């Protein structure tokens, strides 16, 4: 069962270079402004920039953080940014990494929401997306190739990945795929490694680790342990709690988010209409940065600029708290061989889900000879010449606008 041995990555800082908060902030600010294409694209760009180019962390550590982000509710790419911030610069980096990735997109969505309220329609973005989407496909494929070579290190993991792709195409629940893959592989491994002393020590080490994480959480978010209700502007508290709840329970893509938002905001409370909700989700998906900035748009519709801020903080706050709790546990999971095999299974399942998403995106992005040429040329520039993906995204946007003008 040597194929089931987990990757050994050590403690959080063992294979990651520590860096300045300024450097961290500048990178995630730029990413928040330029990262089109949804979570799969964001993850691919982070892998290209931080693993391949800057070497802030190893590919193995990146995969562990990706797997951990996939296992908790909330926006996975934002949680990955928060994890990397913690790894790079400690607790301050945890906050800076997430905030700098989230808020540029939130501000942009807020401006679009103002225009939507002022003029009654969405800005035209079709031409930009026409050129950007094919480039994003190439960026995702590059990341899948690099991460896959590291994650799929045995025939059993390769088979598990293929099965996960099939299950994702069949629309099996994301949590079933992630937890099921990890649990099955860990179970197989445990049959051959039961009763070892190392496993016992690994399991016992979770208790002090959890206590340490909880204490650290209270130091960063001292109000997180408070369960009472304070006075607030009527409506704002309800708005905050609704989005806090949604951010705490939603797994999966923007379409899953759409289902939860519709149930709470349209059906249950009648705060917005179906048409407004569809527009909000569309803006969250076509703007750079996290798809969950849909909440910013809805908050603006409901309560103006303050409502946009309240909704944004509400839906993203659980991600910071969950990463603060789970982040310090990742190296301890690696010290337990069975738990490490579980994480390996989750990593492979995460890449399989990413591959299924890229296939779906590709069907909508490659619509003619020009978009096909953009995918091929972008892939060549990324893999052969290692061109920065941000420049390719900008070039795709320019080509899309130019093509729109020619056709117009």
- C-alpha Rg (nearest Å): 21 Å
Overall pLDDT metric: 79
Q: SSE string, helix = H, strand = E?
A: HHHHHHHHHHHHHHHHH
Helix content: over 70%
Shape: globular
Number of strands: 0
First-residue to last-residue Cα separation = 61 Å
Low-confidence stretches: 1-15, 197-234
Largest sheet: none
Give me the number of helical elements: 17
**Based on helices, strands and strand pairing, what is the structural class?**
mainly alpha
Proportion of residues in extended strands? under 5%
How would you characterize this protein structure?
77% of the residues lie in helices and 0% in strands. By secondary structure, it is mainly α. The chain has a domain of 221 residues. The N and C termini lie far apart (61 Å).
Briefly say what this structure is:
The chain has 17 helices and no strands. The chain has 408 residues and is mostly helical. The longest helix is centred in the first third of the chain and has 44 residues.
Keywords:
408 residues, 17 helices, mainly alpha, disordered N terminus
What topology does this entry show?
Layout: H1 21-34, H2 39-53, H3 59-71, H4 76-119, H5 126-151, H6 155-169, H7 174-193, H8 197-204, H9 206-220, H10 236-249, H11 254-268, H12 274-286, H13 294-326, H14 330-335, H15 337-365, H16 369-383, H17 389-407
């Amino acid at each position: 069962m040597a194929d089931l041995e987990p990757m050994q990555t050590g403690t959080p800082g063992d294979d990651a270079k520590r860096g300045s908060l300024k450097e961290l902030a500048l990178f995630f600010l730029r990413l928040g402004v330029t990262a089109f294409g949804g979570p799969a694209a964001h993850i691919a760009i982070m892998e290209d920039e931080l693993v391949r180019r800057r070497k802030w962390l190893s590919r193995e550590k990146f995969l562990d953080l990706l797997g951990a982000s996939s296992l908790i509710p909330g926006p996975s790419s934002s949680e990955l940014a928060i994890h990397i911030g913690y790894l790079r610069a400690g607790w301050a980096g945890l906050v800076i990494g997430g905030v700098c990735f989230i808020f540029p997109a939130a501000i942009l969505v807020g401006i679009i929401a103002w225009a939507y309220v002022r003029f009654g329609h969405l800005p035209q973005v079709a031409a930009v997306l026409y050129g950007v989407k094919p480039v994003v496909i190439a960026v995702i494929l590059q990341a899948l190739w690099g991460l896959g070579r590291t994650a799929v290190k045995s025939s059993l993991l390769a088979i598990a990945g293929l099965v996960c792709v099939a299950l994702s195409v069949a629309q099996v629940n994301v949590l079933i795929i992630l937890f099921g893959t990890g649990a099955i592989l860990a179970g197989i491994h445990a049959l051959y490694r039961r009763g070892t002393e190392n496993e016992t020590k690994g399991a016992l080490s979770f208790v002090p680790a959890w206590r340490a994480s909880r204490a650290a959480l209270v130091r960063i978010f001292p109000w997180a342990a408070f369960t009472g209700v304070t006075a607030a502007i009527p409506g704002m508290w309800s708005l905050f709690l609704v989005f806090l709840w949604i951010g705490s329970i939603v797994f999966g893509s923007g379409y899953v988010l759409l289902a939860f938002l519709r149930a709470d905001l349209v059906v249950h409370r009648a705060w917005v209409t179906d048409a407004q909700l569809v527009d909000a989700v569309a803006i969250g998906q076509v703007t750079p940065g996290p798809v969950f900035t849909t909440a910013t748009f809805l908050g603006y519709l409901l309560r103006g600029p303050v409502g946009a801020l309240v909704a944004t903080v509400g839906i993203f706050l659980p991600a910071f708290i969950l990463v603060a709790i789970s982040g310090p546990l990742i190296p301890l999971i690696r010290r337990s061989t069975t738990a490490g095999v579980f994480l390996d299974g989750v990593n492979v399942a995460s890449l399989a889900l990413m591959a299924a998403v890229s296939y779906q995106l590709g069907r909508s992005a490659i619509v003619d000879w020009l978009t096909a040429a953009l995918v091929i040329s972008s892939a060549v520039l990324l893999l052969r010449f290692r061109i920065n993906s941000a420049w390719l995204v900008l070039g795709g946007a320019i080509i899309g606008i130019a093509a729109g003008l020619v056709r117009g």
